[in-house]
Design goal:
Largest sheet of chain C: 5 strands, antiparallel
Shape of chain B: globular
Strand content of chain C: 15-25%
Strand order of the largest sheet of chain B: 3-5-1-12-9-10-11
Radius of gyration of chain B: 27 Å
Number of domains of chain B: 3
Largest sheet of chain B: 7 strands, mixed
Distance between the termini of chain B: 56 Å
CATH architecture of the largest domain in chain B: 2-Layer Sandwich
Mean pLDDT of chain C: 97
Radius of gyration of chain C: 18 Å
CATH topology of the largest domain in chain B: Aldehyde Oxidoreductase, domain 4
Low-confidence stretches of chain C: none
Structural class of chain B: alpha+beta
Number of strands of chain C: 12
Largest interface: A-B, 61 and 62 residues
Chains: A alpha+beta, B alpha+beta, C alpha+beta
Number of helices of chain C: 10
Helix content of chain C: 25-40%
Low-confidence stretches of chain B: none
Structural class of chain C: alpha+beta
Oligomer: heterotrimer
Chain lengths: ~160, ~800, ~260
């Protein structure tokens, strides 16, 4: 067992974990932060994306023991301090960027990382950045639109509301 | 101004708040006090006889609580097929038992023959490996190829079923001779052999189930990833485990997509219930994605020869198809209905065709069961037809748009009885075709093609004019055709004393947005705020017995039930109002949320009536019960018939064969639309799945029955950069004539109409570049396949 | 996955010591190793994380003008920090996996694994890079020894990779659409003393140099210079994503595109 301490959504947490404990398991089972989802076992679907030290990573493919001291942010930590939706989350609702909601936490976390790196991405850049996030419901149209809208771009000319 | 409220408004989805903040509650998100973990032990060969299973080593491992094998379930029932098909000779289909755990034989890779329950998931997994190590399976030759399965009568998926044939179905058998004659007499016959590729549904949430048992009351509870909790309950109780139906509650909480794959009852659901009873503790199981690939019911997998007889100017005279349909190793619940009554009945398409005959043989193989996947049968019919018509137009040197226009039914021809047993109630197929051509700027295609050529690319355009039958389904009709269930739905409207409303629906929302859209319908009808309405779904202890969500049926069937229940609420409200206003019931009208006496200013608000129903101080108690809660069941008297025209433009990189979708245009007729934003989202998702089928999604078994595409490393899911922004329109609406909301259903349209448009576009691009030898490429049109076809 | 002991040394010396334990395995970013372990296809007794060794992280330029990349440097860091010094290499790093994978995966991990469809082997071989380990220097030409096989001895750690910077370079990746590894990837680098062409994804022998193309392009660094060549011979991978002939064809197409893009 390895002792780890990390900050999750601004709160310090610590505990003993087995070497094999994945960050996704620790978040979901240890901390009951079940917004982070696990949709595959080959590190491709992206439902488990969280931020570690400000960067998007796949929490199903990272060991907690390897992240001692890390600053972790999950979907549960993305709303405004008063609990209202952040502008990115609000854009997903406004533009119908989610249906079943299962991939959504990973999409939001990836989108937030993109906008941090690239505040005004083109459609092409948004689509490319989502290479590691799979959605089966939306056909991506409204996800891409929501992310562009969240970046302050006018999306009214994009076909269909 | 677009509406901002009620029917027709693009109301934002209320369910999004919990999903966007990580507060959804999907099955695997739930933790139960004292829970333990189940892991299935699965066959790693496609076909084998179980010689022995020694569980002793596994049983002694740390944390192991129980081990189950097929023998433990030998005396309980099997998971049944929901539809009895009769072969052309009148004999009933062959129905092998589908047990909870395989017993005697394993029949596909992933077939579970044992299960381990342990304190932790990893302990269960360790012990499952030990069970596998203690098991001897005599491997038998795998039956993978359908034609080979039928030809080789000695090698059998099920020992009791010779030639591996489930049924040999003719539709309509009485049409057969006339079709043969018409085909013989036709001046031109186009023949096309094609494969409708097998797909893995891949809802992003893997299947998961939690079983609970209360020894004090004898009550069971199953929390599971289901599109239809009541149906699962019925199957588990009446067919599999024999639990009295009132002693099992099935809860389908937030469900992360279904697309058909979560309609069906699966063995793991029965396993966790049996294990929970044995151990007295909650037992949970969650599929890993690799298990989903091996065991979720797959979709499609048809091999078809279609013939279209036509005049030289493109008038269709007759259509004949011969299909082999793979049902896999066992019959999943709707696996026999999907390739028959959801496929053969659509083979006339939106066209006026005098003669149609469909022959379909369903074949057992050592592969995962195949069942309904988004569109279910209708994409297969549409693909065959729209590819063949395109080929026919090309052979006759006719414009594919003109050929379709020539054969489309016209608005004055409805209601129209097809030669394959359906009655289309209403439509305007010319309108959607015109709309699509206009939106896609077909007139500007040549200029765009020239640009592509200058960049070294080949550009093509493809069309598909499609129709489907959904709003499933009229019980009297499907009953005659072999369905073993009714296909009505139900809703309960509960008005509280303060005038707020809960609606309990048989329909289940797993992405469709019912919680928002159904509330819009209620708000419109009662002139109350949407926020005063809550939609409750997914819990059989709360909702009336409805059949769930699939077949684009939720609004058309359950929404109609809800509308009927609201009618009952209003009717009762009128009685209460008549009493309170001292007027005759017949003089009370309900408008704008108010009950009033016609021709006077005397009125009671909806809230006042609701309050009076629960505080009945001034109330006709001698003739009317207090309370304001009504249930309605609705059984449709016909299918609904959405239709549309889809246009796809592609570019091919001739050096690599890679196909890029440049634009995709949809003009749909869904009848009345309750929430345009949600409807458009449904079309987007369906089209992406259709593009996925057409270009990238490939399910391949090798000759030993091993699934080669068993993870996202080899099975390609459409990504954001594989698709464009879609252009969608639903303004050409002809409301459904036989349900109260005039709705037709939109969930499957995109997946039905899009694959042939994509493939037609690729063939068009190759022909325009002079490669007229390429008349067909089977899906998925991967770069390697397209490049290969270009070299031939 | 099976459980294991976990170690996270802070120096190369301690890492080497930890890896001397029986069935010990080095952990880079884990983007391939962890999925493999989840499938229970690998079961190290000890996993030694190389992610906390400061001397193995970072990108710099040495006095010979070579770009030096610490073995535990992530793809995202290379994409960012090598851009000014070796744009072709940075562009290759920016095409590996997806953004989240690039934030964890490391160059040392990728080269040690030597997946036949990985991108980095093409850059290392195509640049004639020097692979420095805790005990020696290995030239790229000697390092790659076939699919998943390298010159590394058990317990040996890639501490740094040194890339001579070419005059021109480009990487063209035709993705395997599911995994997003390379179905075929070609790295072309033009040095003063000749052109190197390294191909990944295509061969059952793993990454290889296409000698005929190198000769033709060394004589004339133009897309047309390879027109007359037959696609490379050798055992091409054939699978459901493409036949051997298709892969061989793509090698030529991607080589031509890389030359054109390199300018």
């Amino acid at each position: 067992m390895t002792q780890v301490t990390m900050t999750v959504n601004g709160k310090s947490v610590s505990g003993k974990v087995e070497g094999r404990t994945l960050l996704a398991e620790f978040l979901r089972e240890g901390l009951r932060l079940t917004g982070t989802h696990v949709g595959c076992d080959t590190s491709q679907c992206g439902a488990c994306v969280v931020h570690v030290n400000g960067k998007a990573i796949k929490s199903c493919t990272a060991l907690v023991a390897d992240l001692d001291g890390a600053d972790v942010r999950t979907i549960e930590g993305m709303a405004n301090p008063d609990g209202s939706l952040s502008s990115l989350q609000q854009a997903f609702q406004d533009h119908h960027g989610l249906q079943c909601g299962f991939c959504t936490p990973g999409m939001v976390m990836s989108a937030a990382a993109l906008l941090k790196e690239n505040p005004k991405p083109t459609e092409h850049e948004v689509r490319g950045y989502l290479e590691g996030n799979i959605c089966r419901c939306t056909g991506y149209h409204n996800i891409v639109k929501a992310i562009m809208a969240a970046s302050g771009q006018d999306v009214s000319q994009i076909a269909a509301e | 101004m677009p509406k901002d409220h009620g029917i027709g408004a693009s109301s934002k989805r209320r369910e999004d708040i919990r999903f966007l903040t990580g507060r959804g509650a999907y099955t695997d998100d739930l933790a139960m006090q004292g829970q333990v973990h189940a892991v299935m032990v699965r066959a790693n060969v496609a076909h084998g006889r179980i010689v022995s299973i020694d569980t002793s080593a596994a049983a002694a491992m740390p944390g192991v609580l129980a081990i189950f094998t097929g023998a433990d379930f030998a005396d309980v029932g099997g998971n049944p097929a929901g539809w009895l098909i009769h072969s052309r000779d009148g004999s009933p289909m062959r129905e092998p038992k589908r047990p909870v755990l395989a017993h005697g034989k394993v029949r596909h890779v992933g077939d579970a023959y044992a299960a381990v329950v342990a304190e932790t998931h990893e302990q269960a997994r360790d012990a499952a490996e030990a069970v596998a190590a203690g098991t001897e399976i005599e491997e038998l030759p795998a039956i993978v190829d359908m034609a080979g399965a039928v030809a080789n009568a000695d090698n059998r998926v099920h020992d009791e079923i010779p030639d591996n044939l489930c049924f040999d179905w003719g539709w309509i058998e009485a049409n057969r001779d006339a079709v043969d004659a018409a085909m013989k007499a036709a001046p031109h016959v186009t023949t096309l052999e094609l494969v409708n590729n097998r797909l893995v549904p891949n809802a992003m949430e893997p299947r998961a189930s939690i079983g609970e048992f209360n020894p004090g009351t004898g009550d069971y509870k199953l929390t599971t990833t289901s599109q239809n909790p009541h149906l699962t309950k019925l199957l588990v109780c009446a067919f599999v485990l024999g639990i009295p139906e009132h002693k099992l509650t099935v809860v389908a909480p937030d469900v992360g997509g279904g697309f058909g794959s979560k309609i069906y009852h699966y063995g793991e659901e029965a396993l966790v219930l049996a294990a929970a009873k044995k151990l007295g503790r909650p037992v949970r199981w969650t599929a890993e994605r690799s298990e989903s690939f091996l065991t979720d019911a797959h979709g499609r997998d048809h091999v078809t020869t279609i013939e279209v007889g036509a005049t030289l100017d493109g008038e269709i005279l007759a259509i004949r198809t011969n299909t082999l349909a793979n049902v896999g190793a066992y019959l999943s619940n709707f696996s026999t209905a999907t390739p028959t009554f959801l496929h053969g009945t659509l083979m006339a398409g939106p066209y006026k065709v005098p003669h149609v005959y469909v022959n379909l043989k369903a074949v057992f193989t050592n592969t995962a069961p195949v069942d309904a996947y988004r569109g279910a049968g209708r994409p297969e019919a549409t693909y065959s037809l729209e590819r063949a018509i395109d080929k026919m137009a090309r052979e006759l040197k006719l414009d594919p748009v003109a050929v379709r226009r020539k054969n489309l039914l016209t608005p004055d021809q409805f209601p129209y009885t097809t030669p394959v047993g359906l009655v289309y109630d209403v439509g305007n197929y010319q309108a959607t075709l015109d709309k699509a051509l206009d939106m896609a700027d077909l007139a500007g295609f040549e200029a765009r093609a020239a640009k592509s050529r200058a960049a070294g690319k080949l550009r093509g355009v493809g069309l598909s004019t499609w129709i489907e039958a959904c709003g499933i389904a009229p019980s009297h009709l499907v009953g005659q055709l072999g369905s073993r269930v009714g296909l009505y739905d139900a809703a309960t409207v509960r008005v509280s004393a303060t005038g707020t409303i809960q609606v309990m629906t048989g329909a289940h929302s797993h992405g469709q947005g019912h919680e928002t859209v159904f509330a819009q319908v209620v708000a419109e009808k009662l002139s109350i705020p949407e926020g005063a309405v809550e939609i409750v779904h997914g819990d059989t202890s709360k909702i009336p017995f409805g059949m769930g969500s699939y077949g684009s049926r939720s609004l058309a069937v359950c929404g109609s039930a809800m509308d009927r229940a609201l009618d009952k609420i209003i009717a009762k409200g009128k009685k209460i109002a008549a009493h309170m206003l001292e007027a005759a019931e017949g003089d009370i009208t309900f408008e704008n949320g108010s009950f009033s006496v016609a021709g006077t200013d005397k009125a009671k608000s909806f809230g006042e009536i609701a309050f009076s129903a629960y505080v009945p101080h001034n109330y006709p108690l001698e003739t009317l019960e207090p309370g304001l809660e009504e249930t309605a069941f609705y059984d449709p008297n016909n299918f609904t018939y959405p239709a549309g025209a889809y246009l796809c433009e592609v570019e091919i990189d001739p050096d690599t064969g890679k196909v890029t979708i440049c634009s995709f245009t949809c003009a749909d007729d869904f009848g009345n639309v309750m929430n345009p934003m949600v409807v458009e989202g449904q079309v987007h998702g369906g089209v992406a799945q259709g593009i996925g089928q057409a270009l990238v999604e490939h399910t391949a078994y090798d000759e030993n029955g091993q699934l080669l595409t068993a993870s996202y490393m080899d099975y390609t899911m459409p990504r954001a950069d594989d698709v464009p922004f879609y252009q969608v329109d639903h303004s050409c609406a002809t409301p459904c004539t036989h349900n109260p909301l005039g709705v037709k259903g939109c969930g499957e349209a995109g997946a039905i109409g899009s694959p042939p448009a994509v493939v037609n576009a690729v063939i068009d691009a190759l022909h325009r570049a002079g490669m007229t030898h390429v008349t067909h490429i089977d899906m998925p049109l991967t770069p390697a396949r397209v490049w290969g076809a270009m070299q031939a | 996955m099976y459980n294991f002991e976990f170690a996270k040394p802070a120096t190369i010396t301690d890492a080497v010591k930890a890896l001397a334990a029986e069935d010990a395995q080095a952990l880079g970013g884990g983007q391939t190793l962890l999925p493999t372990m989840k499938q229970r296809l690998a079961s190290p007794a000890t996993l030694v994380s190389l992610n906390a060794i400061p001397e193995m992280i970072g990108v710099c330029v040495n006095d010979k003008g070579e770009v030096c990349i610490g073995g535990a440097t992530t793809h995202a860091t290379v994409a960012q920090e090598a851009r000014a010094h070796y744009p072709g290499l940075a562009a290759l790093a920016s095409q590996i996996g997806d953004p989240a994978v690039r934030n964890r995966g490391t160059i040392g991990g990728s080269l040690a694994n030597n997946d036949p469809s990985a991108c980095y082997p093409a850059a290392a071989l195509g640049s004639g890079a020097l692979i420095k380990t805790n005990s020696r220097d290995i030239a790229a030409d000697a390092y790659f020894q076939g699919m998943f096989a390298t010159a590394l001895a058990p317990g040996e750690i890639i501490t740094e990779v040194r890339f001579p910077v070419p005059q021109k370079s480009n990487y063209q990746k035709f993705v395997q659409p599911a995994s997003r590894f390379a179905l075929v990837g070609v790295f072309v680098a033009k040095y003063a003393d000749g052109v190197r062409v390294a191909v990944t994804g295509a061969s059952t022998d793993g990454v290889f140099r296409w000698a005929e193309a190198e000769a033709a392009l060394s004589a004339d660094f133009a897309k047309g210079a390879i027109d007359a060549l037959s696609p490379p011979k050798g055992d091409m991978i054939a699978d459901l994503h493409g036949s051997a002939d298709y892969r061989a064809h793509l090698v030529k197409v991607m080589t031509g595109r890389a030359v054109a893009a390199a300018g």
